[in-house]
């Protein structure tokens, strides 16, 4: 008998899988996990036992299951391309952890693979699903705040050296880079989704004495948006003990400060408003997974609804290319010591 629930497969059982598992458990009346696959049999068995999911013996078992409508890919970036090709060819829609791939070129190839196969590709940028983020997006889109003059993104996070002692962490071969592509990518994506595309950047990036790693653990830069607004970004995982990330938009009618899940708006007429959660983890400190799973739940539900309705999910693979291009520009600017123009849409 065919299930009426939305059937998914899960690939990967590492650290980032926990909020997905909790979200899927909370969606059991709507989504069913047909199987979980991990290359390490012991980890797979332990993960499935903890959350009550069925094990999948192979990638092919999920790809060939007619009741699997989509797969959630939670592997490191260097394992994405082959998986996407296999599942897209099998007609499975794909919801994938950020980043799309390690480089913008590889990310574009993945997006093209899914578009050619006619399957949806969604990317896990869960910060867009915070209540406060959605309120700010509506305030900007409606024009209530007026035009943006200045946008400031700040990610003062902390990771202990033990985090980078795991083989491959913070390397270009596995992760594609450091703080930008692995941590700050969430805040940068959210900023772009609200403030619009960036046209030019100039930045400095490097590794502080606090970490032994190949890629950068600090970046700071100036930005010019296509709208004419100016901006700045600071991102690091060397700011002990770690603070919540924030986006501040200084606009014609007021300033909006989004700090983690809380939005404060200071209107120029003297009013002040606060929206969103008053407390909660951000993942900015020593525990990278110290945050609620609610945002993942809403994102997974949006993806399932989109697939069944025949529409694109809220965060598509093509949309995610914008933040990849911004990250590339910041890194290139630091390496070459010059301003970089971003050719958005290419």
Automatic annotation (TrEMBL):
Pfam families: GFO_IDH_MocA (PF01408), GFO_IDH_MocA_C3 (PF22725). Residues 6-121 form the Gfo/Idh/MocA-like oxidoreductase N-terminal domain. Gene3D superfamilies: Dihydrodipicolinate Reductase, domain 2 (3.30.360.10), NAD(P)-binding Rossmann-like Domain (3.40.50.720). It comes from the Bacteria. One of its GO terms (molecular function) is nucleotide binding. Residues 135-256 form the GFO/IDH/MocA-like oxidoreductase domain. PANTHER family: D-GLUCOSIDE 3-DEHYDROGENASE, UDP-N-ACETYL-2-AMINO-2-DEOXY-D-GLUCURONATE OXIDASE. This is Gfo/Idh/MocA family oxidoreductase. It comes from Oceaniradius stylonematis. The lineage of its organism: Bacteria, Pseudomonadati, Pseudomonadota, Alphaproteobacteria, Hyphomicrobiales.
């Amino acid at each position: 008998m065919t299930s009426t629930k939305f059937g998914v497969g899960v690939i990967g059982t590492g650290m980032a899988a926990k909020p997905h598992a909790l979200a899927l458990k909370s969606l059991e009346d709507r989504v069913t996990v047909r199987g979980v696959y991990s290359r390490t049999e012991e980890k797979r068995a332990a993960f499935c036992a903890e959350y009550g999911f069925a094990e999948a013996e192979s990638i092919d078992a999920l790809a060939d299951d007619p009741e699997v409508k989509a797969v959630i890919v939670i592997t490191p970036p260097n394992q994405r391309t082959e998986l996407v090709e296999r599942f897209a060819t099998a007609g499975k829609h794909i919801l994938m952890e950020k980043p799309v791939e390690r480089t913008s070129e590889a990310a574009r190839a993945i997006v093209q693979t899914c578009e050619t196969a006619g399957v949806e590709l969604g990317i896990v940028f869960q910060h867009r699903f915070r209540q406060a983020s959605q309120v700010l997006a509506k305030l900007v889109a409606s024009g209530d705040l007026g035009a943006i003059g200045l946008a400031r993104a700040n990610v003062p996070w902390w990771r202990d050296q033990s985090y980078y002692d795991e083989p491959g962490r913070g390397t270009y071969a596995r992760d594609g880079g450091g703080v930008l592509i692995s941590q700050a990518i969430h805040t940068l994506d959210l900023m772009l989704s609200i403030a619009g595309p960036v046209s030019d950047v100039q930045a400095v990036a490097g590794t502080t004495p606090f970490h032994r790693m190949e890629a950068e653990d600090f970046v700071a830069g100036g930005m010019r948006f296509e709208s004419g607004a100016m901006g700045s970004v600071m991102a690091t995982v060397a700011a002990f003990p770690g603070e919540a990330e924030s986006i501040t938009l200084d606009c014609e009618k007021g300033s909006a400060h989004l700090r983690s899940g809380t939005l404060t708006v200071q209107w120029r007429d003297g009013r002040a408003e606060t929206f969103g959660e008053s407390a909660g983890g951000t993942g900015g400190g020593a525990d990278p997974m110290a945050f609620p799973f609610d945002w993942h739940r809403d994102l997974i539900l949006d993806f399932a609804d989109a697939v069944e309705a025949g529409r694109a999910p809220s965060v598509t693979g093509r949309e995610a290319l914008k933040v990849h291009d911004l990250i590339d520009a910041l890194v290139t600017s630091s390496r070459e010591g010059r301003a970089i123009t971003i050719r958005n849409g290419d």
